[in-house]
Amino acid sequence: MTVTRGLEGVVATSSSISSIIDDTLTYVGYNIDDLAENASFEEVIYLLWHRKLPTQAELEKLNKELADNAELPKEIIEHFKLYPIDKVHPMGALRSAVSLLGLYDEEADLMESEANYRKAVRLQAKMPAIVTAFARIRKGLEPIAPRKDLSFAANFLYMLSGKEPEPIAVEAFNKALVLHADHELNASTFTARVCVATLSDVYSGITAAIGALKGPLHGGANEAVMKMLTEIGSVDNVDSYIREKLAKKEKIMGFGHRVYRQGDPRAKHLKLMSEKLTNLTGKPEYYEMSTQIESIVTGEKNLPPNVDFYSASVYDSLGIDHDLFTPIFAVSRVSGWLAHILEQYDNNRLIRPRAEYTGPGMQQYIPVQQRGQ
Ligand SMILES: CC(=O)SCCNC(=O)CCNC(=O)[C@H](O)C(C)(C)COP(=O)(O)OP(=O)(O)OC[C@H]1O[C@@H](n2cnc3c(N)ncnc32)[C@H](O)[C@@H]1OP(=O)(O)O
Ligand SMILES: O=C([O-])CC(=O)C(=O)O
């Protein structure tokens, strides 16, 4: 048996959803740069789920389905109010809420593909309401109901703040959602596929995926980047802070990637947005600190920034609480998880690799009374 640590380079499934070839990312063959500049997040959801861009009529149908399903059952809101609210991380709340949603979905365990598609729509539609309702309840505020006349991106920002967002904020947030929607067989997507390959249900698959995304080596890195920027505090402190960490062989959050070697193609879009938004809000420091960190880490370690690095200062500029950054990643990535779950069901085989055993050889069982102290 040969063990490949972290399954690096192992091809574990085929998929027609997204590809990373020679550091180029595509969704269903469309370059991410093109989609980031031009597509709405709703179009990307359609693309991932149907493997084609929607016609106007198909897009309107999806928009309506999402809008009609965007409200949370009141039980979820009541449940949030029972949480030890000041101690709960929003990713934990999101993970629990998705699991709980499954309990209130009468079709949760129906395995027909039409029922699974309907669950995908319901889950995608409700993710913004889950994250924003929790964010408001923990501040003692009432959740805000979604509006049917706003886009997916605008609705999220509206439900979070209660104010209709500026067009520039909507444009930036939409772009961030497009950039995070899918990414081949990343850890959380793999988790979702492993879970549903047992023929478990959609809610279980997404709950498992949220758990995997939460970790700081994956989606949790965007919050960790912001923590680092806050700790550094000013451009003057960047050099010593980063060099000290590198000298101690500590990881710099938001850098490196298992697949990309030359760089993550999503990072440049977020970097441009970060520059624009931090300037607009009159707080360019986080962008300036970030570019300085980038030049040290690329210079010293030849590690380029990944999607999580500049998304931190983008979301901060939009006035979003730092611990909501990873839940926002999930609001977008659920579109990819759902596409992969539906694809897995369509051509399923249990995912069950092997482990090389490294424990002791055959041992004789000794009854507890005879084992000594
Ligand atoms: C959406 C996403 O999930 S994007 C990734 C988000 N995660 C992060 O930003 C966390 C920081 N980055 C990392 O931890 C890693 O680069 C990962 C997890 C993304 C990829 O990990 P792997 O492919 O397993 O690389 P691994 O962790 O084995 O690192 C290889 C070498 O590069 C170094 N390295 C990798 N990333 C970093 C980093 N961010 N800072 C400093 N050194 C790093 C490692 O220390 C290791 O060095 P060594 O060979 O001298 O021991
Ligand atoms: O692909 C990965 O390993 C992590 C990543 O960038 C993502 O999930 O967007």
Automatic annotation (TrEMBL):
Lineage: superkingdom: Bacteria
MF annotations from Gene Ontology: citrate synthase activity
Positions annotated as active site in the UniProt record: H257, D308
Pathway stated in the Swiss-Prot or TrEMBL entry: Carbohydrate metabolism; tricarboxylic acid cycle; isocitrate from oxaloacetate: step 1/2
Cellular compartments per GO CC: cytosol
Keywords, ordered alphabetically: Transferase, Tricarboxylic acid cycle
Annotated Pfam families: Citrate_synt
InterPro entries, sorted: 2-MeCitrate/Citrate_synth_II (IPR011278), Citrate_synth-like_lrg_a-sub (IPR016142), Citrate_synth-like_sm_a-sub (IPR016143), Citrate_synthase (IPR002020), Citrate_synthase_AS (IPR019810), Citrate_synthase_bac-typ (IPR024176), Citrate_synthase_sf (IPR036969)
GO biological process, one term: carbohydrate metabolic process
Reactions it catalyzes: oxaloacetate + acetyl-CoA + H2O = citrate + CoA + H(+)
Keyword set includes Transferase: yes
Signal peptide coordinates: none
UniProt entry tagged with the keyword rRNA-binding: no
Protein family membership: Belongs to the citrate synthase family.
Protein name: Citrate synthase
Lineage: Bacteria, Bacillati, Bacillota, Bacilli, Bacillales
Encoding gene (name): citZ
